[in-house]
Amino acid sequence: MEAKAIARHVRVTPRKARRVVNLIRGKRASEAVTILKFAPQDAAVPVRKVLESAIANARVKADRANEPFRENELVVRETYVDEGVTMKRFRPRAQGRAARINKRTSHITVVVADKEGAR
């Protein structure tokens, strides 16, 4: 069984989020949550929330299919970070100038699956 969770418009740059996502790819889901709890990067918090959401989605899918749910058998099969919209901000400066500030966002996707489905 496979479950997926997506967080969109997360206020973390994609490059920084990819560093965190690469830590958990291919690991067991419970181990990945523990890694993210103690990761020093700020991007670990939204990635952990998406991972926990994917685990919860797997639990709901298993309940609907009347299958037993084993959280310790879930594996993080796919994780990737795509670039979201860029928010454009302006900061006033002296002599009528304005500095343009680009704030980048990310779309974080996590797919968890059973060991059988992790081929």
TrEMBL record:
CDD domains: Ribosomal_L22. Pfam families: Ribosomal_L22. One of its GO terms (biological process) is translation. The keyword Ribonucleoprotein applies. Keywords: Ribonucleoprotein, Ribosomal protein, RNA-binding, rRNA-binding. The keyword Aminoacyl-tRNA synthetase does not apply. GO terms for molecular function: rRNA binding; structural constituent of ribosome. GO terms for cellular component: cytosolic large ribosomal subunit. It comes from the Bacteria. Part of the 50S ribosomal subunit. NCBIfam families: rplV_bact (TIGR01044). The globular domain of the protein is located near the polypeptide exit tunnel on the outside of the subunit, while an extended beta-hairpin is found that lines the wall of the exit tunnel in the center of the 70S ribosome. This protein binds specifically to 23S rRNA; its binding is stimulated by other ribosomal proteins, e.g., L4, L17, and L20. It is important during the early stages of 50S assembly. It makes multiple contacts with different domains of the 23S rRNA in the assembled 50S subunit and ribosome. Belongs to the universal ribosomal protein uL22 family. This is Large ribosomal subunit protein uL22.
